[in-house]
Specification:
Helices cover about 85% and strands about 0% of the residues. The protein is mainly alpha-helical. The longest helix is centred in the first third of the chain and has 28 residues.
Length: about 120
């Protein structure tokens, strides 16, 4: 268990650092009110988790330890949006389209409401 936690922690730390750098870089490139840095990181994270999942499921090139380091750790630290997107896609691919749409809608709505509630409670 300790080895697994270390792999997730190392990957998560690297992902968090790169998320910060990617958001800063994108923010400097695109001077707009649109949160370009976060958008860039989320889309890139989705692409990376897609590549890594393909390497695991179709190419059988990554072990369980690699999955912990790169997908759970790195992608989780880089952006949880990538995990959310991959889980949503899995629901659609397994024929659970209604559950997939519900998961997306409820996650976004409840997430935004939770941020608002947290801010409101501390006003």
């Amino acid at each position: 268990m300790m080895k697994e936690m270390l792999l997730v922690g190392l990957g998560g730390g690297a992902g968090s650092i790169l998320r910060y750098l990617g958001a800063v870089y994108a923010g400097k490139m695109f001077h707009t009110d649109f949160p370009a840095g976060t958008f860039f990181v989320n889309v890139l994270g989705c692409f990376i988790i897609g590549l890594l999942t393909g390497l695991i499921e179709h190419q059988h090139l990554l072990s369980v330890n690699h999955r912990l380091l790169f997908i759970t750790g790195f992608c989780g630290g880089f952006t949880t949006f990538s995990a959310f997107s991959a889980e949503s896609l899995r629901l659609f691919e397994s024929g659970n389209s209604l559950v997939g749409m519900l998961y997306i809608a409820v996650s976004v709505l409840v997430g935004v409401l939770a941020v608002w509630l947290g801010i409101w409670l501390l006003k």
